[in-house]
Every structure is written in structure tokens, then in C-alpha cells.
Amino acid sequence: MNAAYRLLFTHVLSKMDPERAHGLASCVIRVLGRRGPAALVAPLTAPAESLAVETMGLRFASPFGLAAGFDKDAEDIDGLAALGFGHVEVGTVTPRPQPGNPGPRLFRLVADGALINRMGFNNRGAELAAANIAARRNTSVIVGVNIGKNKTTEAEDAHLDYAVAAAAVRNVADYLVVNVSSPNTPGLRSLQSLESLTPILRAARDAAPGVPLLVKIAPDLTDDEIREVTQLAIDEGLAGIIAANTTISRSGLRTSPRIVEAFGAGGLSGRPLTERSLDVLRVVKSTAGERLCIISVGGVADATEVRRRLDAGATLVQGYTEFLYAGPGWAASINRGLARLRG
Q1: Cα angle vertex 83, ends 114, 14, to 5°?
Q2: Which residues pair with 213 in a beta bridge?
Q3: Nearest in space to 69 (alpha carbons), one of 98, 92, 86
Q4: What is the DSSP string of 61-91?
């Protein structure tokens, strides 16, 4: 499957607009999630029982799941579960629908196994996402919901947006993630300051009592800032931290600086983040110990890297960018590799 996908990517998908290719892939995954196709595929991709992880009061079939950003409106959960992901994090969803930033807004850096995106939380709103989650057939796969504020909401009112989004999905989300770390909504990252973040976390927690709450942080924070946010998460009774989001850094890329500059602003994801996201994980772990569920994401390409994150203290691991390069067999191949590495 992977070899066939590589040919398809090289000769067809790589020549398409990235956002259009993403939409095509989403349609195929949706078809895969229907009863008949899923019944055929799932037995071939299901994680080994030995990979199951229990955390936050939930049972994850595998430590490896899909990060937010792929399935913004929670339309593809059944198909993604059939491909072997141990959990699916949907969103980012906002209280009100919004189109996101103008295109083009998604760019491939093939030589780096990376993407630059400035999507801007394009989604059809939290209520629609909630309805889609409720309508899924596969109720065993863990579904997290990543929530954000609308672009038009002023920073001082951000906590209100997070409360509305949390309330809209609280009955269908297995866990919630406060996203204050995307670089694609003006001023959003400033909400990672303790003064701004504290009321946001409290508002989301109070709006969805009993639902595990996590916060997703940027890899561009200093180590001291990471420690401060981690301690805040502990003090506020959060379930965990996701480390980390996309970066605004462009250092160490193989792609021509001229091309990277032409792509413009946005968050960089994929293999260039591997070492920094591992560093962020270690800083979070050194502060949190066993008190938080830590989900590591950023530059995860294969089972060996997933195993390295788990060994460094991650409870769970997520990926996204490599999925677009490796194809539909990616999650299943990681699960098989993890089973082998576990021995």
C-alpha cells in the first residue's frame, strides 16, 4: 500500500494544490469509513491488544493517534479509525463558523517532509462538529476536540469563546484541547501568557465539567515558559499538555530559502520539528512527572520515533504531516512497528 501511494503522490498528488489534494483524501477516507469498507479494512489495521494505553480515565487502542488539523469538522472519524489510529483529535473548531485565511494557505516542503500552513481555523463551527461526532458509527475510537477562538473575538473576550466551544462539544468529546498556540490567528499565541491563559482554562473547564482538559503549547516558547505553563496546568487541575504545535521558525530547512520566503507566513510542521518537539516533551516531563498526560507531537514519522517519545515520557503520541507523505497505511505500519519494538 505504501509503495503504491508513493507512486500516486509523486505522479499525481504532488502536482495538485495541497488543499485540493487534502480534500480529495478526506473524501476517500469518508468512503472508507462506511460500514462495508470499514469492515474489510479494520481487521487488517487494528492495533495489537498489547498496545492499549489507559490514561485520563480513557482506554486508547494504541498510543499513536492523529493530531488536530486533518479532520477539522469531524467528518472523517470512522475512516481514520479504520486506518488504525488509536485516537482522532478533530478541529480546531470555533464557536462560530469561519472561512479561515485567504488562499493559497497550505504549502509542501517535500525535501524536508514538511508543510507550511496558515489555514486560520477554517471550520464550520462547534455545533456542526458536535453533530458529526455524535453521528459516527465507530464509538470505540477516542475522539478529542481541539477548540479555539474566532478571529473576530478580541483577546480580552477569548475565554468566552473557549467556554462556548467547550459547552457545544462537551457531550460528545472524550477530551478537550485548548489551542492557544497556532500562529495563524492574530494574537492567539499571546494567550499563552499565564495572565491570559488562566481565565481561558478555567472557562473551558467550567463549561465542560468532567471532560478531561488539555492545553496545546507552541514549540517556540522558552524552556522557562514551558515550565510555567506546565505548572499552571497542574495547578488548574488539567488532565494534560500537548507538546507541541507548529513553529514559526524556518531554521535548518533543505528547501531553498527563496521558495520558503515565497510561501510566506504560517506554521511549519513535519520532520524539521523532530528534535525541538522532543526537547519540549522532556521539559514538560521534568516539570510534570506523572501528574499529567503528555501527548507528544511534531516531526513524528515512524514507529522508532514514536517509541523514542514514549521512552522520553510521553503518554501518547500524535502525527499529522507525515500522513500526507506516507499515505493511508501509515498508522497501521506504526502500530505494527511498535508491537515489534515492544517485543
Answers
A1: 35
A2: 176
A3: 92
A4: SSSEEEPTTSSTTS--HHHHHHTT-SEEEEE
Q: Which three cell numbers stand for residue 139?
A: 464509538
- Its pTM stands at 0.96
**Residue 33 in contact with residue 76, Cβ under 8 Å?**
yes
Q: CA-CA distance, 58 to 190, in Å (whole number)?
A: 31
Contacts for 295 with CB less than 8 Å, ≥ 6 apart = 214, 240, 241, 242, 243, 314, 315, 316, 317, 318
The grid cell for 81 is: 479509525
**pLDDT band, very low/low/confident/very high, at 343 (cuts 50, 70, 90):** low
Q: Mean pLDDT across the stretch 287-294? A: 98
> Residues 108, 113, 119, 122: is their CA dihedral positive or negative?
positive
Cβ atoms of 81 and 74 closer than 8 Å: no
* pLDDT for the residue numbered 234: 98
Mean pLDDT of 288-317: 98
Rounded distance between C-alpha atoms, residue 228 and residue 292, angstroms: 14
Phi/psi for 242 (5° steps) reads: -105, 125
Rounded distance between C-alpha atoms, residue 118 and residue 17, angstroms: 14
The grid cell for 249 is 521558525
Long-range pairs of 191-198 with CB within 8 A, sequence gap ≥ 24: 191/155, 191/158, 192/217, 192/218, 192/221, 192/225, 192/229, 194/228, 194/229, 194/232, 196/155, 196/158, 197/229, 197/232, 198/232, 198/236
Question: Which residues are tagged catalytic?
Answer: 182
| Contact in structure between 218 and 183 (CB atoms under 8 Å) | yes
Cell 479504520 sits on residue: 82
- What pLDDT, in 10s, does the model give residues 37-74? 888 888 889 999 999 999 999 999 999 999 999 999 99
Instruction: Tell me the average pLDDT of the chain.
Output: 95
